[in-house]
Amino acid sequence: MEGYKKHSHVVYDIKFYIIWVTKYRYKVICGPFAIRTREIIRQGCEARGITILQGSGGKIIFIFLFI
Q: Where is each Transposase IS200-like domain found (predicted)?
């Protein structure tokens, strides 16, 4: 049961998909904005003890995270 979280009566493993899409799918997630956004997401996850399992900035119109 490696990788699972345990409490007195439960064993669980919760994963979330988070997809962030810009309004009207404008292509604004590029260049320095994309780099800074990645840094902010990583810092926020580290501060809360969240592990990012997979991430992608696909086609510059969305950010996909699997945590």
A: 11-57
